[in-house]
Each structure stands twice: as C-alpha cells, then as structure tokens.
Amino acid sequence: QVQLVESGGGLVQAGGSLRLSCAASGRTFYGNTMGWFRQAPGKEREFAAASTWNGGSTWYADSVKGRFTISRDNAKNTVYLQMNSLKPEDTAVYYCAADSRYRGPDARPQRVGEFDYWGQGTQVTVSS
C-alpha cells in the first residue's frame, strides 16, 4: 500500500520558519514529480511547490516564491518543504503529493488532478 506521510507542521509566529517532511512508502517515486499543495479553511486546494525527480527543476506558486524551498532525498524517498518568512496567509493544511505518470521532460504539473498520490496533510498555523 502506497503511503505519503507528512510531518513538521505546527504553530509559528509570523516571520518564522518551518520545515515539512513527506516520507513515502510502498513504492519509490524515483523518476516522478513530487509536490506540495495547501488548503486554507473555506478555500480550494492550491499548488505551492513541486520538484522533478532529481530536484533539477523546481517550480513554485507566486505566493510562496522566494520564501519556500522544495527539496528531495530519493535515497530516503522523502520530500521536504522549507518555509521561511511565514505569513498568516500561509495558514493551511499542507499536503504532499506525487505524480506517478511520466509527462515528458518539460512538464511542470501543478494542478490537483495531475497528482494521484496524496498524504493526509499537516496543519500549519501562522499567528500574527
């Protein structure tokens, strides 16, 4: 059974930092894009960041660009999201996701429907 398990969420003051981790089990995602999404109360799930299989290419939502950094350790089957300069509007449940399909070398998936494996989410709350 494939599982993505997030950890590292919590409560932090504005301007602070958190590092989220997502450990995959049940299969390796070597060769696949992995990403992070978030969902605030009353809002739709939105893309935050993603990385190609080797980390050679990463892409971000404009709202987090310059503050968040995605990285991955394929040996550990784990992807990370370093979040700096956090703002109250970053408050959300953060989800790890994996795209099991090969879409070509130039593909940069960032829609919810393009990812077919999901974690259960971890809450991030940023106080003002």
**Mean pLDDT, nearest integer?**
94
> What is the radius of gyration?
14 Å
H/E element sequence: EEEEEEEEEEE
Range of strand content:
over 45%
> How many helix segments?
0
The outline comes out as globular
Oligomer: single chain
For the report, how would you describe the main beta sheet? 7 strands, mixed
DSSP helix fraction = under 10%
SS-based class: mainly beta
Distance from N terminus to C terminus (CA atoms, Å) equals 40 Å
* Unreliable parts: none
Number of strands: 11
Describe this structure in words.
- By secondary structure, the chain is mainly β.
- The protein is 0% helix and 48% strand.
- The strands form two sheets. Strands 2, 4, 5, 6, 9, 10 and 11 form a seven-stranded mixed beta sheet that branches. It has a four-stranded antiparallel beta sheet with strand order 1-3-8-7, with no helix packed on it.
Write the layout of secondary structure elements.
Blueprint: E1 3-7, E2 10-13, E3 18-25, E4 33-39, E5 46-51, E6 58-60, E7 68-73, E8 78-83, E9 92-99, E10 117-118, E11 122-127
Parallel strand pairs: 2-11
Antiparallel strand pairs: 1-3, 3-8, 4-5, 4-9, 5-6, 7-8, 9-10, 9-11
Characteristic key phrases:
48% strand; 128 residues; globular; four-stranded antiparallel sheet; seven-stranded mixed sheet; mainly beta
Give the structure's gist in a few sentences.
This protein is mainly beta and 128 residues long.
